């Protein structure tokens, strides 16, 4: 029975769609923040304008009261005039007038004054946010019903003692009463303007969001066209045809750097594949030579057993077998060096002592070659003693095969490095081939030919081991013979040294 996989949330996989969604989300947040700020700022400014517009009616009402005239209830703004000692309003209008005569005033009465208000300029007003209480006796006339709401209210006080007795009587207040003129600032205009702005902002925001998302999607699509071309070109690269390269855009942006990097990588892969093919071919050729010689000697011995020099045939077979063994070990070591990390970990190794032991125990081939070492002090390096010993042996083997009379190994401390030199007095190596000898399965002509016993892997292995120990190995100029110089970072001496 097949178990249905749980449904996963599907997100767009396209970079274009993801980028457009990300930009849309960022724009939405930005527009929402901007809309919130605009909403409150427009409302604040609209309220301020409404308050400024309420000052003129307030001033007109004050002038009428000072003249002893009861203002008309017909007003563009809600107002109420209250006085001390009165239960009902002196006057009200703009929707604040009571529907039933004799009803209580809505807005609070002022505290009693004992004289004119000293303002210095002759005019003042105060602004308070007042909650209009609900009336229990009756409602308000007109369509405006502020009951239960809180509104900005502009107020100013007038002492009735400033008026004549006839003016006070016309207003219906005592001669020593205090009057307060209230003008309510209506929020309707501010709210209407804010609502209109909100609708406009919402429409503009939606249109902007759609346009920005579409433009982002199109821009990313155009920008990724070179990437698609690079992908198509890279997909056509095969092992049989690794020479394909991607087209580098002339725009000079990040995609140009990507194309250049891909081409560089493809070039390195092409060169690595070529080296691998060449290495396999050379290895097959090197293995075929001793196998062919070994098989030929054995077949001849088997074909003519009574005329075969069996000790000589066995000696030849053993020599070819040793050559096969040496070549196989070198190939395995190269494979290990290619597969492992580029640095070798280990303790401190005295390179001078290692070189001295190698020279003392080295089995020189038949001939007049002498091997000597020149070490004056201890020279410690970090690494694996076995790998370093193999490196030194390869250098000494190469020098001993081509030396005429002498091979000298020198070890010295030089600053922060340990320098080891292996110098032979053979025919030497031309300068133009100083790097060629470090290639695998490479042997130079004449004096450095195959009949001298090398496999063509000793120097490449030595250089790989030097690199693994963070060192260098080069052929340095020499007046006589060939001189190989190894430089390794100097290490502190061990505690028990």
Describe this structure in words.
Helix 5 (254-303) runs antiparallel to helix 6. The protein contains nine helices and twelve strands. Helix content is 45%, strand content 14%. It has 497 residues and is an alpha+beta fold. A five-stranded antiparallel β-sheet has the order 2-1-5-4-3, covered by helices on one side. It has three domains: 12-223, no CATH class; 254-337, Signal transduction histidine kinase, dimerisation/phosphotransfer (DHp) domain (Helix Hairpins), CATH 1.10.287; 343-489, Heat Shock Protein 90 (2-Layer Sandwich), CATH 3.30.565.10. The radius of gyration is 52 Å and the shape is rod-shaped. The longest helix has 52 residues, at 15-66.
Short note summarizing the structure:
With 497 residues, the chain is of the alpha+beta class. It has helices spanning 15-66, 165-171, 188-223, 225-235, 254-303, 310-339, 351-361, 385-402, 458-468, and strands spanning 79-83, 91-93, 126-131, 150-159, 178-184, 348-350, 370-375, 380-382, 406-414, 417-424, 472-476, 483-489. The strands form three sheets. A five-stranded antiparallel sheet has the order 2-1-5-4-3, with helices on one face.
